[in-house]
Design goal:
two-stranded antiparallel ribbon; 4-stranded mixed beta sheet; 30% helix; 3 helices; alpha/beta; 128 residues; 25% strand; Tautomerase/MIF_sf; Macrophage Migration Inhibitory Factor; Tautomerase family protein
């Protein structure tokens, strides 16, 4: 699951495009299938969204929640691909993008009535 935060005036106009770019990166780097897009956009009022100095109101925070198992090199490749594609396709500078990958063991995931460690029919690999 991916959660994207930003100031609503900047995030709302690019939500669909940003979703396409994020999922495209997850497909190319992680091998995620097309139908495994799970994005949650949290457009916020500017007075509720504080961001670091040196950034613009386009500052966008992206939290990627995933089952553990991806190699550090794979995770770094995903982050770098996100910076590159978000800049070239959405127009948000890498200085205004923050990416955090949060990993949890498969038993901490629940979907389709089972836990992640019970799932045997995933159409993608966790260990990449």
């Amino acid at each position: 699951m991916v959660v994207i935060y930003g100031i609503k005036e900047h995030l709302n106009p690019v939500k669909a495009q940003l979703s396409e770019v994020i999922h495209g990166c997850m497909q190319s780097v992680l091998g995620m299938p097309e139908d495994k897009r799970a994005h949650r956009f949290i457009p916020m009022e500017s007075e509720d969204f504080y961001y670091p100095g040196g950034r613009t109101p386009a500052y966008t925070a992206i939290e990627i929640n995933m089952m553990e198992g991806r190699a550090s090199e794979t995770q770094k490749a995903l982050i770098k691909e996100l910076f590159s594609k978000i800049e070239s396709e959405v127009g948000i500078s890498p200085v205004d993008v923050e990416v955090t990958i949060k990993e949890q063991p498969p038993h901490c995931w629940g979907f389709r009535g089972m836990t992640g460690d019970e799932a045997r029919d995933l159409k993608y690999s966790i260990n990449v």
